[in-house]
Amino acid sequence: DPTIFSSPTRMSNVILKIGDQQLHVSKEYLAVHSPVFEAMFFGNFEENGRKEVVIKDVVYEEFLDLLHLIYFKSLVITDRIVVHILKLADRFQMEDVMELTKKHLIQSKGINAAKKLLIADQYRLDSVRDHCLQSFTSFVNLMKELKLTPECDNLSKDMKSAIYDRFSKI
Fold first, then answer.
1. Measured distance CA(135)–CA(47) in Å, rounded
2. Which of 61, 92, 104, 162 could form a disulfide with 77 if both were Cys (CB 3.0 to 4.6 A apart)?
């Protein structure tokens, strides 16, 4: 329900402004799930004590997905939303949410291994990287899949090293 955070409740004590939208949330609840929000609301930052806090560089609907996930555990992570949930979990250092996204990526059949390697590289998800690399029986098969995904030209040195390590042991 997208309207659940649109008006104040007795549990909400701060308004997050995302663009021209407002979300009424609990500082304490967000702080429990995120050291970034904990520092923002209870540390020596300008947001401490404010009734409204602007959150920049976030898509409202994507942040709403994140809130539904942490507040109600009602959101199922799917291939369609895993990257934006992961991006927000990384930004706000939400370890529990990061674990859920890793689990989804490892189990997903709808995201190819090359795309998973890109995501693992970008967000430093070693368990996802290792799982993907183990799924390839040969270096040739991996290279074929990577060539089909042009973004793989930009893999980090760490990822390239992990690929080398995986296949140098065969």
1. 46
2. 104
- Is the full-model pTM beyond 0.85? yes
Yes or no: say if 89 and 66 are a contact pair by the CB < 8 Å rule.
Answer: yes
**Separation between Cα atoms, residue 106 and residue 116, nearest integer Å:** 8
Q: Which residues contact 90 (CB under 8 A, 6 or more apart)?
A: 98, 123
The token pair at 45 is: 């930052």
The string of pLDDT tens digits covering residues 108-142 is 999 999 999 999 999 999 999 999 999 888 888 88
Q: Which among 165, 120, 116 has a CA at the least distance from the CA of 139?
A: 165
Query: Is-contact 9 24, C-beta < 8 A?
Result: yes
